Amino acid sequence: MALSIHVSLLSGRSVRLRATPTATVQDLRQAAQKKLRTGIASLVNSEGELLGPEKCVGEVGLREGARITATVQQARIVSCRRSPGFFLVRGDGSVLAWGDVCSGSPGLPRELRGVRQVAACSGGLAALLSNGQVLSWGSSCPKEVGQLTDIHEIHATEEAFAALLGDGSVICWGSERLGGNSAEVKEQLFDIKLLAASLGAFVAIREDGRIISWGQPCYGARSVDEPYELHGVLQLVATRGAFAALLDTGGVVSWGKGVRNAESRAAMCQLQEYG
Question: Span of the secretion signal (predicted)?
Answer without folding.
Answer: none
